[in-house]
Design goal:
With 343 residues, the protein is an alpha/beta fold. Helices cover 41% and strands 14% of the residues. The chain folds into two domains: 3-153, 3-Layer(aba) Sandwich (Rossmann fold), CATH 3.40.50; 181-333, Glycogen Phosphorylase B (Rossmann fold), CATH 3.40.50.2000. The chain has helices at residues 12-28, 44-48, 60-65, 70-84, 98-106, 141-153, 197-209, 221-233, 245-254, 264-271, 285-288, 308-328, 336-342; strands at residues 3-7, 33-37, 54-56, 90-93, 112-114, 131-132, 181-185, 213-216, 238-239, 257-261, 276-280, 296-300. β4, α5 (98-106) and β5 (112-114) form a beta-alpha-beta unit. Keywords: Cell inner membrane, Cell membrane, Glycosyltransferase, Lipopolysaccharide biosynthesis, Membrane, Transferase.
Length: 343
C-alpha cells in the first residue's frame, strides 16, 4: 500500500473521531502516503494531524452558503485537480454522504471503500463504492470506524485509541499569570442539547473556589449573550473574544480543565490529553462519549441529563488524576502539598 485517500468531510467533532483511524493506517502502512479530503471549513484538524501528507480541502460548505459564487467554484475545481494528480491504492470514505462519495468516485483508484446503504447518511452514496465495509460491531463511533476499515484492509488494531495532533502555538503565550483556566463549552447547536444555565453557574462557582479562572467561549450572538450572563454570575469569569478554530484550539490546549457538551472542541480537548468532562443530554453517550480513566469522562445520556453533583464528581475524577500525575513527576518524589509546607 503506497498511497491512501481518507475521506471525512465534516464536521469538527468527526475530524477528531477520525484521528485514531489515521493512527491505525499509519501504523499498518508506515511507508504509505496518506491524503485527507475534507471540507475547507473543517480542514484545520487534518492539517494538525500527525501522519497526513496532504490535505485536499474544497470549499463545499462555503460554495453552498455563499450562493454558489465563482470564487468558491474555482476553489472546488482546484481541489479536484489536486485530487486527480495522484493515483491511490485505495480511497476510504468514512463519511457516507453524497459529497464524500463523489470525492471517492473522482479519485484515481481502482478500490473505493464505503458503508453499505443501510448505514449511510445518504443511501444513494453507495453508487461510488467498489467494496462495502463489513458489520459495524458493538462499539463507539470511533471504534466502529477503526474496525470496519481494519477488517476491509486486513490489519489488526490496538485495543486503545490513539489520536495524534499538534495544535500550532499562539503568537503570544497564554495564561502567563500562572492561574489555571477551566474552559466551559456551554453552547450547543440545538436547544434540546443544552444544560441549564443555573447548573453552569453552580459549576463555575465551585471551580472559582478551587482556584480556576473560568473561560467562556462562544460562536454566535446568542451564545455570546449566554456567556455574558454566565460571566456575570461566576466570580472572575471571562467571556472570550470571537475566535477562529485555531485560536479556540489554542485556548483548549492551554486549559487545565475542559467541561462541555458533546461538541467538537470538547472532543478536541480529549484528543489533546486535557482533563475533560463531556455532558450528554440529547445524544448517545455510549456512541459518542469520551472515556479515558483519569483523563476524560462522560456523564448523562440521551434523555437523561446529568445532575450538578454528577458533573462535579466527574471533574474530581479527572482533576485528581492530573494532580497525581504532576506529583509523580516532581523532583525527589515530593508532592505539591509537601513542597508548599516546606516553603
Amino acid at each position: 500500500m503506497k498511497r491512501i485517500l481518507l475521506i471525512k468531510v465534516t464536521s469538527l467533532g468527526d475530524m477528531v473521531h477520525t484521528l485514531p483511524l489515521l493512527h491505525d493506517l499509519r501504523r499498518a502502512y508506515p511507508g504509505a502516503k496518506i491524503d485527507w479530503a475534507v471540507d475547507a471549513s473543517c480542514a484545520d484538524i487534518p492539517r494538525w494531524a500527525v501522519g497526513v501528507d496532504r490535505v485536499i480541502a474544497p470549499p463545499l460548505r462555503q460554495f453552498k452558503k455563499n450562493g454558489r459564487k465563482w470564487h468558491d467554484l474555482r476553489g472546488i475545481l482546484s481541489a479536484v485537480r489536486q485530487l486527480r494528480r495522484e493515483r491511490y491504492d485505495v480511497a476510504i470514505d468514512v463519511h457516507g454522504v453524497m459529497k464524500s462519495a463523489i470525492v471517492a468516485r473522482l479519485a484515481r483508484t481502482p478500490r473505493r471503500l464505503g458503508y453499505a446503504a443501510e448505514f449511510l447518511g445518504e443511501s444513494k452514496a453507495v453508487f461510488a463504492y467498489t467494496q462495502i465495509y463489513g458489520p459495524h460491531g458493538d462499539a463507539n463511533c470511533r471504534q466502529k470506524m477503526r474496525m470496519v476499515v481494519a477488517n476491509a484492509l486486513g490489519y489488526e488494531i490496538e485495543p486503545h485509541e490513539t489520536p495524534e495532533l499538534r495544535v500550532p502555538p499562539p503568537a503570544t503565550p497564554l495564561h502567563t499569570d500562572g492561574v489555571p483556566r477551566a474552559t466551559l463549552f456551554h453552547a450547543t447547536s440545538l436547544d434540546i442539547k443544552k444544560w441549564p444555565q443555573a447548573n453552569w453557574v453552580e459549576i463555575g462557582h465551585t471551580l472559582a473556589r478551587r482556584g480556576y479562572r473560568v473561560e467562556l467561549p462562544w460562536g454566535s450572538p446568542k451564545e455570546q449573550a449566554e456567556a455574558q450572563a454566565l460571566a456575570a454570575a461566576i466570580p472572575n469569569a471571562e467571556v472570550l473574544p470571537r475566535m477562529s478554530i485555531t485560536e479556540c484550539a489554542q485556548r483548549v490546549d492551554a486549559s487545565s480543565l475542559v467541561v462541555g457538551m458533546d461538541t467538537g472542541f470538547v472532543h478536541l480537548a480529549d484528543a489533546l490529553g486535557k482533563p475533560t468532562v463531556m455532558l450528554f443530554t440529547a445524544t448517545s453517550r455510549p456512541h459518542f462519549g469520551v472515556d479515558r480513566p483519569g483523563q476524560a469522562v462522560s456523564v448523562g445520556d440521551n434523555g437523561a441529563p446529568p445532575s450538578v453533583d454528577e458533573v462535579l464528581s466527574a471533574i474530581d475524577s479527572v482533576t485528581r488524576a492530573s494532580v497525581d500525575k504532576a506529583t509523580l513527576h516532581e523532583p525527589h518524589g515530593l508532592g505539591i502539598h509537601a513542597q508548599q509546607q516546606g516553603g
